[in-house]
Amino acid sequence: LRQKDAPALAAMSILSAQYPRYGYRRIHVFLERQGHQMSVDRAWRMWREAGLQVPRKRSRKRVACSRPRPRAPTGVGQVWAYDFVFDACANGQQIKCLTVVDEFTRECLAIKVARKLNSMDVLETLADLFLLRGVPAHIRSDQGPEFIAEAVKGWIGAVGAQTAYIERGSPWENGYVESFNGRLRDELLNG
To answer: What is the mean predicted confidence (pLDDT) over 56-74?
Structure first.
């Protein structure tokens, strides 16, 4: 590498260590924000010559499902999915994140983080979203105790939405929120 590339390469190495799941294109954006002006092709050459790479994801076993996917969304706000992500703070205390995703746009509508979340916290989050975004036709979730609570089921039915529970042990039926939760863990929580 040329001598003039040394500062940009040092910054690139620091950024790739800080954001291990980001490739050269995203790192290039950060470099330009820091004042290292270069083309994407030059960023690629520097990335390759420095031996940097995004760690490969482990291959997953694909499960064939003969059943059609229940209630596939055909428009914005028709099907929302929600689930929990668990993590621990540096002091060892557990935190719980409730994530709500619109399945059509794949947009995260809400993330609520607390040490403990129960069915009333789920209702509070959904009520806020219903006021902001309107009521969806269906809300998909697993059969966790916070989601199948009678208060949650009754309230969701009373506002005009329907619950769509996935089969036990079938997280692929709730794929959009599981995919979002995986990225949230990969890019934020594991960092």
So the answer is: 60
131-143 tens-digit pLDDT? 999 999 888 888 7
Of 81, 70, 11, the residue nearest 46 (C-alpha): 11
Q: Count Cα neighbours of 90 within 13 Å in the Cβ-side half-sphere.
A: 1
Largest CA distance in the chain: 67
Strand partners, 163: 139
**DSSP H or E run through 83:** strand 79-88
Q: Which two tokens stand for residue 14?
A: 């620091």
Q: Is the pTM of this model over 0.70?
A: no
Kindly report the three-state secondary structure assignment for every residue of 117-132: CCHHHHHHHHHHHHHH
**Closest residue by Cα to residue 119 from 93, 99, 144:** 144
